[in-house]
Automatic annotation (TrEMBL):
The lineage of its organism: Bacteria, Pseudomonadati, Pseudomonadota, Alphaproteobacteria, Rhodobacterales. Keywords: Acetylation, ATP-binding, Ligase, Magnesium, Metal-binding, Nucleotide-binding. Residues 534-612 form the AMP-binding enzyme C-terminal domain. Coiled coil: none annotated. The keyword Kinase does not apply. This is Acetyl-coenzyme A synthetase. It comes from Sulfitobacter litoralis. It catalyses: acetate + ATP + CoA = acetyl-CoA + AMP + diphosphate. Catalyzes the conversion of acetate into acetyl-CoA (AcCoA), an essential intermediate at the junction of anabolic and catabolic pathways. AcsA undergoes a two-step reaction. In the first half reaction, AcsA combines acetate with ATP to form acetyl-adenylate (AcAMP) intermediate. In the second half reaction, it can then transfer the acetyl group from AcAMP to the sulfhydryl group of CoA, forming the product AcCoA. Its EC number is 6.2.1.1. ATP binds at G388, E389, P390, D412, T413, W414, W415, Q416, T417, D503, R518, R529. Acetylated. Deacetylation by the SIR2-homolog deacetylase activates the enzyme.
Amino acid sequence: MSNVATQTYPPSDKTADAAHVNAVKYDAMYDASISDPEGFWKEQAQRVDWMTPFTKVKDVDFTFGQVKINWFADGALNVSANCIDRHLETRGDQTAIIWEPDSPKEEAQHISYRALHSQTCKMANILRDMGVGKGDRVIIYMPMIPEAAYAMLACARIGAIHSIVFAGFSPDALAARVQGSDAKIVITADFAPRGGKATPLKANADKALASCDASVKCLVVRRTGGDVAWNDTRDVDYTALAKEASDSCAPEAMNAEDPLFILYTSGSTGQPKGVVHTTGGYLVYAALTHEVTFDYHDGDVYWCTADVGWVTGHSYIVYGPLANGATTLMFEGVPTYPDASRFWQICEKHKVNQFYTAPTAIRALMGKGRAFVDGCDLSSLKLLGTVGEPINPEAWNWYNDVVGKGNCPIVDTWWQTETGGHLMTPLPGAHATKPGAAMKPFFGIRPVVLEPTSGAKIDGNDVEGVLCIADSWPGQMRTIWGDHERFEQTYFSDYKGYYFTGDGCRRDADGDYWITGRVDDVINVSGHRMGTAEVESALVAHPKVAEAAVVGFPHDIKGQGIYCYVSLMSGESPSDALRTELRNWVRSEIGPIASPDVIQWAPGLPKTRSGKIMRRILRKIAENDYGALGDTSTLAEPEVVDDLIANRMDR
Ligand code: 6R9
């Protein structure tokens, strides 16, 4: 346990006084949320408009074999009406979305709530005309353009279930998701400009759709107007249709437990799983956490730099902020284009008040030097946030000093695709922060620390173990699309009666929480979740590869890098050219984010006598930590370890 005194940063009086939630209020609200969850969430659910009021608040069972999670289950509402229509009277002309394009030379757009309404209705009508109805699945494979938000909200409006596939994913990954969710249509764009380059999204979609059912249609937004191949029986031109489409479309009444979206995410085994979020509970939780964690006030300009392809983009670019009637900024590009001052230029240009990004971006920008920050006027900033992976104190301090000038509380928000919204974070007006700590549970969240092997609950402070959650919250995922059994197996079987997060954590002497990272075979590369099993199965799909084992290793910028041990088919010989071929192969199977950092040729892999690969050992070798190899006596062929050490690749 760490006994090193950590510097703490209490909220200033000014921040605490102005905040929605100060320390006293947090304590009272947290206590109420735990002692009377039904009463607490009944009241919180009033922040959204219900078409049919609910009478039941919570119906939850975490017992393995009979897991069910229902919130507000007999109520009806529409997410798009909550994010748009109900604001029209009071803030129709207020900007809902500020869109900042990839190139600073192109003009930013300010989309009012009224314009958002009209655009969303047009998209909804176009989808309906294409035969999309309630419960149908729609894949969204889009750049960070306003149409991505229109598409999400249009699906919500007509009750279709969207599944966003990050535009950096390959055609194969896209095809797997189209097939996995049995989608009726793919919404895409001609090209996705990013960092001065343009990904040919439509061409990728064409490749993906070649291996999907012929009935799947493709709706294409013209982003650059560049040339694309066209299939008249399948492709539909959104940009042409939107000019004529009606801008009125009545929102569908959805049951609170109807699915709102599916989002595929990596797990420790097998192929990515389709995390299912539903309508009522998700929206209540996204809206409440957005307001309280970021201390969002009317008139603020809020910017989350995530991509809508990740859960952070769902909850904290689109649904949470818009449900709160906020002004949310959407950025198409990357932090380093045209140069490393771009984030800060945008903060200055749009007078951003709350800024939310990932540690990997902070580390990358920190490496470019502070001059890029110092040249910009960041006086509008009130709060900084981070998400996606543990933040190292060095990056935290740089964020605090250089970006926040010591005046902006940093909310280190720990949560997951599965949780829908923040589960642990300091609240800016209530809690002191510590560099690298997620600090406190959000309202309604009951974290428990368990002994990893016995599953015994560890009480008291200054303890470490695996992190589980003892009771449900409205934003929790409900199931894995098409595989409820895998859902129960993944999250409820290892530690009975609890939701298992897959993360380790420490509760320090003050009772504050620190996330220590994944305890399963999921690695976190630049804040993107990657199952080592996924990369392995991509590698072994290559005809020259016999076997592969993949582990994470510490990486200065990405947090973790991807280290692959590869055994070749007999007769194949290792070469740098083959290394490049395999790297490109993985990129095309999954996407550039899965690109291996290191490929080490492994004549053999360390296995137990029952044939299980001993990843613990491979991880240690990749980390350059041979002293800690631990017990190798159960290995079938201990000598393979010596070979791997001798031929270890330097990064
Ligand atoms: C929102 C999101 C979830 C995993 C999670 C954990 C890691 C996220 C973190 C963090 C430490 C934080 N993680 N936020 N670790 N501190 N503030 O990132 O969802 O892509 O599903 O990843 O990311 O390991 O389990 P997702």
